[in-house]
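User: Predict the structure for this protein chain, please.
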Amino acid sequence: MINRTHVWFAAFVLIVFAGGLAAGVALDRSVWRGGRAFAGPGAPGGGFRGGDRGQGGPSRGEGRGTGDGPAAEMFVRELDNQLALTPEQEKQITDVINASRPQMRALQEEASKRFAAEQQALHDAIVKVLTPEQAKKFEEMPRGPFGFRRGGRGR
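Assistant: Here is the predicted structure, written as structure tokens:
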């Protein structure tokens, strides 16, 4: 039976997948194929590839934060490459993307919070099953990606 938790988890997974896909496309276009996806100030169509920065790329943390800018531009550029958009279509698509950002961001934040709550509930349920000694060891186990506990040995 599908409940609201499953729906939110599926939405969260879909959002994370879409973000990973967009990052993969960006890296593919910019790094591995020598594209100029991360155009910066003073670099019309150029980018942070040395010349204007004196380095091989943007410094750590640059271009991060709100998520506005290059990702939408790169997506529209890719659509244009594949579909031969008119300038008006490019503008309209950019406007649609920009208009959807607040809702997408809110969905992502809510899904993330719900995922963390479900993960904590799972953790608490596991601890209830364990003896005090096992629970102590469980708490000391290292956490892997997404906070899940990892064992120290293979299966």
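The CA atoms of residues 2 and 8 lie 11 Å apart.
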